[in-house]
Amino acid sequence: MRRRSLIKGLVPALLTPVGLYAEVYLSREQARAILLPGSVKHSPVTLTKEQKKAIESASDVRVRSLEIDAWKSSDGSWLIFDNVLGKHEFIDIAFAINSRGQAKGVEILTYRETYGGEVRNPKWRAQFHGKTSADRLKLDKDIQNISGATLSSSHITAGVKRLLHTWDLVLKNL
Amino acid sequence: MTKSTLRTRCAIALAGAALSLTNAHADEYLWSFARNSQVLPKGETELVTVNTFRFGKNTGSYFAWDSQAELEYGLTDKFLISGSILAQYFNFKDVPFDPYTDRRANDLRFSGFNLNMKYNILSPFKDSIGLAVGFAYIRRDYYRLDGAPTDQNSFRPAIFLEKNFLDDTLSFAWSTGVEFERRRFRDAEGIKEEEISIESALGVSYRFRPNWNIGFEVYAQGDFLEAGFNNVNDLNLGRNFQHGIHIGPSIHYSNKKWWATLGVVTQLYGGPDRGTPDSDSGKNWDEHERMMVRLSIAFDF
């Protein structure tokens, strides 16, 4: 009986080491203060299946979750807390977009990967400023790749592209 | 060999593995044998230990343990170099080998070293396909199958292809190496051999949750004897002396500091022909075993 209890305790422990070595760079509150200072209102959105399909079709990026953790400011800007796949775990990001659909900025909140932390570099993230859903955001062409951090560069770029189209197809009408 | 001697030798082998350099296929191993096209970023170092346990022939009893410790270093973001040391242990009896093998059963020793390089040409994360090429020099002082004392020098060019899907969570990899081997057996009247060994593996792996991948692979290996590779006018593959195809699953765990992969493959088919002394029921027992278990563990610095 004791052995069974031990196994029951060990198995979930072994299977749940997610975030074991997480590097937290910014809290959500800090990211909000940088990207969208001033008064914001929590405005979460649940995508319909049709909206999910439309975003995937327009952005050519998979939508993994129907839930959008979004905050809206009085001037019509949006702040979204999101995550993209890293090599081992999720990379938590915050993304802000203004009322004209232009990217205001991207912040890396939590990074859990062995390599590729260079995506935090402000100069690299600044490449997204002003981008809209009309931009291709092709890595190595529109967005410079970080050599040695290609997977993270690629997935963050795809994540931003997905969020730009999410604004264009869903958020701008709310 | 007494148990305490064996324990001491095991400890020496593991300590050596932990302290020294090893094999060269870079980045994380999602499978036992198949390798992807990725390399380490510039300035990064990884210590990889690979332990392979081989079991079973068609007669007698056979157990072999191949241990390898490798230190990999990213010279640039695309070019990786590494070095490894090899150790091996055998315990076998009444297997279909030559009579010399009796003296080498139940023995553990350092058996050689590798020097490797791998160059990534295309990245699977931004190009339509991942592609890398590799080259290795391998020195063996003891034969891989039975530990026979040998002087063996090999050169091994290799190619690595990779294609990913579903946000890089579903990964296909194909790797092939051609090893040009030249050896002289030290205790068999100095018999010399020139051989080409072709090794190929195809793997599919899926990241079913953060940190965890599950995979499946097909691994094939064949030897060609009397091959010619001394000069360009004398190039020939020789005759297919033996081959074996293995299949099996693998599971991989990785995080920021370390990763590990455990895989098992069993022999599905082997040759050359049924009914020959080396084959039985469509399998090859001379150079292939019934089952191989491989555990790879790596640490990032």
Describe the structure in your own words.
The complex is a heterodimer of chains A (174) and B (301). Chain A has 174 residues and is α+β, with helices and mostly antiparallel strands. Chain A has one domain. In chain A, 33% of the residues lie in helices and 22% in strands. Chain A is built from five helices and seven strands, in the order αβαββαββββαα. Chain A has helices spanning 2-15, 28-35, 49-59, 122-126, 150-169; strands at residues 23-24, 40-42, 45-46, 67-73, 78-85, 90-97, 103-111. In chain A, strands 1, 2, 3, 4, 5, 6 and 7 form a seven-stranded antiparallel sheet that branches. The longest helix of chain A has 20 residues, at 150-169. Chain B is mainly beta and 301 residues long. Chain B has one domain (3-300): monomeric porin ompg (Porin, Beta Barrel). Chain B is built from one helix and 14 strands, in the order H-E-E-E-E-E-E-E-E-E-E-E-E-E-E. In chain B, strands 1-2-3-4-5-6-7-8-9-10-11-14 form a twelve-stranded antiparallel beta barrel. In chain B, strands 12-13 form a two-stranded antiparallel sheet. In chain B, a hairpin with a 2-residue loop joins strand 8 (192-209) and strand 9 (212-225). At the A-B interface, helix 5 of A face loops of B.
Detail the poorly predicted runs of chain A: 12-18
Structural class estimated from helices and strands of chain A: alpha+beta
Write the element-wise H/E pattern of chain A from the N-terminal end onward. Answer: HEHEEHEEEEHH
Strand content of chain A is: 15-25%
Could you tell me the mean pLDDT of chain A? 87
| CA(first)-CA(last) distance of chain B | 37 Å
Q: Rough shape of chain B? A: globular
End-to-end separation of chain A in angstroms reads 56 Å
Determine the CATH topology of chain B.
Answer: Porin
CATH architecture of chain B: Beta Barrel
Give the total of domains of chain B. Answer: 1
Order of helices and strands of chain B: HEEEEEEEEEEEEEE
Tell me the strand order in the biggest sheet of chain B. Answer: 1-2-3-4-5-6-7-8-9-10-11-14
Radius of gyration of chain A: 18 Å
